Amino acid sequence: MTARVIHLLRHGPPERPGLLLGHTDVPALNPDCPQMRDRARRVTVDRVVASDLARCAVQAGHLARNLGVPLTLDRRWRELDFGAWDGMAPESLDPPALSRFWDDPERHAPPGGERWSDLRTRIGAALAALETRTLVVTHAGAMRAAISVLTGLDARGVWAFDLPYRAMLSLHIWPGPPMTGQIVGLATGEAR
């Protein structure tokens, strides 16, 4: 049985860090991030897939050109949709409501936003569509959802993973239901 090898790379710092940037489309500070380029050079990939949001798509375009592989944008790799909270500073939100969300994002999704199970379903479908040797440029929430889909960890379990900007996870995914995976490496970025 052969595993697919998938690398998940979190985008670099956005122009507006510290906000709940779910589907809010803001660019990255550095479109051609050297740390991301260095991480991408350490793995062998046949293509790059990225969230269609600018903070991922532009950096992924640079990586794909540098690696000489095709780029595909896939909106399924977007961050969790924070609904009415999208683009807001956490400290500007109602503290009890935000606390309930962090404690249980399934039962206490942001107003008008996405539930944890919806994100997991979306990311599960995106994972199933990937071929081996793919680099995915995405968001921390999407990366945590991928870990959850592959390992069965709940939201609380995957929130324990520190995934700073430019962090990369290398995953081996074995075929067959249910999808199972193993995290074989983690390269972290600089502190947020």
Could you explain the architecture of this structure?
This protein is α/β, with parallel strands linked by helices and 192 residues long. The protein has one domain (4-187): Phosphoglycerate mutase-like (Rossmann fold), CATH 3.40.50. It contains six helices and six strands; from the N terminus they run βαβαβααβααββ. It has helices spanning 34-41, 54-67, 95-103, 116-129, 140-151, 155-159, and strands at 4-10, 47-50, 71-73, 134-138, 168-174, 180-187. It has a six-stranded mixed beta sheet, with helices on both faces. The longest helix has 14 residues, at 54-67. The chain is globular and about 45 Å long. It starts with a strand and ends in a 5-residue tail after the last strand. The mean pLDDT is 92.
Task: List the keywords.
single chain; 192 residues; alpha/beta; Rossmann fold; six-stranded mixed sheet; 6 helices; 6 strands
Task: Please summarize what this structure is.
The protein is of the alpha/beta class and 192 residues long. It has helices at residues 34-41, 54-67, 95-103, 116-129, 140-151, 155-159, and strands spanning 4-10, 47-50, 71-73, 134-138, 168-174, 180-187.
Topology of helices and strands:
Layout: E1 4-10, H1 34-41, E2 47-50, H2 54-67, E3 71-73, H3 95-103, H4 116-129, E4 134-138, H5 140-151, H6 155-159, E5 168-174, E6 180-187
Helix pairs in contact: 1-2, 4-5
Span between termini: 38 Å
**Poorly predicted spans:** none
What is the spatial order of strands in the main beta sheet? 3-2-4-1-5-6
Oligomeric status: single chain
CATH top-level class? Alpha Beta
Radius of gyration: 16 Å
DSSP, total strands: 6
Please summarize the sheet with the most strands: 6 strands, mixed
What would the average pLDDT be, to the nearest integer?
A: 92
| Share of residues in helices | 25-40%
Number of helices: 6
**Class from helix and strand fractions:** alpha/beta
The name of the CATH superfamily reads Phosphoglycerate mutase-like
Beta-strand residue percentage: 15-25%
